[in-house]
Amino acid sequence: MKEYSEAIAFLGQWGRFQQMVFFLLCASIMPNGSGTFNLVFVADIPPHHCFVPDVNLTEDWLKAAIPVQELSRCSRYRLDVVRNLSAQGYVPGRDVNLTDLEQESCVDGWSYSTDIYQSTIVSEFDLVCSEEWKQPFTITVFNVGVILGSFFAGQLSDRFGRKPVLFATMAVQTVFGFIQAFSTSWIMFLIFLLIGGLGQMSNYLAALLLGAEILTSNVRVLYSSLGTNFAFAFGYMMLALFAYFLRDWKSLLLGLSLPTLVYIPLWWLIPESPRWLLSQGRVDEAEAIVRKAAKWNKVQAPQLIFEEYNVSLCFCIFLFKYLYNVCPCLPRLVNTIGYIALSYNTSQLHEDPFISCFLSALVELPAYVSMWLALRYLPRQACVIGCLLLAAASLYLVPLMPQSLPNLKVVLELLGKYAFTSGTVLMFVYSSELYPTVLRNTASGTVLNIDMFLSFVLKYFTVFPFLGVFMKYLPHITLGSMAVVSAIAAVVLPESFGRPLPDTIQQMPTVKPKEYHILPVMLTQGCESVFKQTET
């Protein structure tokens, strides 16, 4: 039986059909870049202080009613006391020692600065002071939706096809991103945000694997490493542009959601994956798509394109080969942690949040270009180790830089973001090369779920928010150390460079060294014998 790439070699690699699939799938990914990080602006915390109602206070007392210290965001001097002192003609700071006055909470609400934003969900629903925990929890809820969506979309994609899941997740993104803007409470916003998160990375993963299965050879590498990620980065940069002009959180959500309606006609242009159809035994449908592609490319299709495919699924084979291929999880996990942590930490790069977001997105472009070149010419294992060591070196150097060179620290953090972005791209492509067509989406989605869950747990509870309290640069040292450990673990990664995508479980590459595989090989042979006996 011919390999899939051999069977469709007559189409060529870069005809009109491949060009259409390439660019339309890339276009479908652009909303992921803006949707993944829009909470950077939607849930940002603007400067605020207790609201002081107009109760006939003098101008001096109106200014002095809010304590100067950091606690002023959540407290004020007792209004009845301040009003009596103002009525008696006392001058704050001269006649009255303000530190002796009793304070109270912001019983009349808060006043939020509009210098940067007209409003965010923080100012809309007062997610400050005693309710401040709701702001990071909002981001966590979104990430839970992303994890659940990746898991279930992977299962559904392997069961019902790549194309239906791709467009279903696009619809979820669009619809629930739109109705979030009409939330009247924080709980309502959370519900819509959770459902919208189901379509985020699952849409990206579906588009990535659909293109990787349709395209072949160097074009597949170009699509997986450069095309999809350039589209993601473009959407990420557009987020900064939209947020700059739409300073109200509702307007921003509407502005990001409504343009995605132009993707509706793509349903009639993007085909199902012929690889997936073959794995389901639907040979006639796969041939119909390839023959249509031949017409687009103006080439003659042979009379018989595919032989009959008989893809059997032995779960025990997959289980043990999957367990013995678990080594890619650690490098992928650390790359994901580093990418997410540095992406959400963009406010530290520049005092202007819009410039910070743009710089964080811009540095991804050279990462995608370099990974495209690396994936074409270099072994996967060497690329993984190189990205991790580069990230570790840049993060280790940040604490050593003198305070007089703040721009050099920014450059090093951006270099770390570059390295983690490169590693994340590499691991996405690498995972798609490891797993067979019958389980590619399920396996990739499962690994992504593990990475996303652990990375968000580590990000929120061990990396930037808390470690920085004990020592300013402890997060950088921690991430750098994790990268070094992952680079060491990457030594035993299986190599997929120069190999065709596996269509069956038996074709999966395995972890080195070979001595580790006695048990999986025995079980594989046992399962195969069971299938042979069943067939006879």
TrEMBL record:
Name listed for the protein in its UniProt record: Major facilitator superfamily (MFS) profile domain-containing protein
Gene that encodes it: LOC115432487
Transmembrane segments: 21-43, 135-153, 222-246, 252-270, 353-375, 382-398, 418-435, 447-467, 473-493
Domain Major facilitator superfamily (MFS) profile stretches: 81-498
Main location per the UniProt record: membrane
A GO cellular-component term linked to this record: membrane
Membrane topology note: Multi-pass membrane protein
Keywords: Membrane, Transmembrane, Transmembrane helix
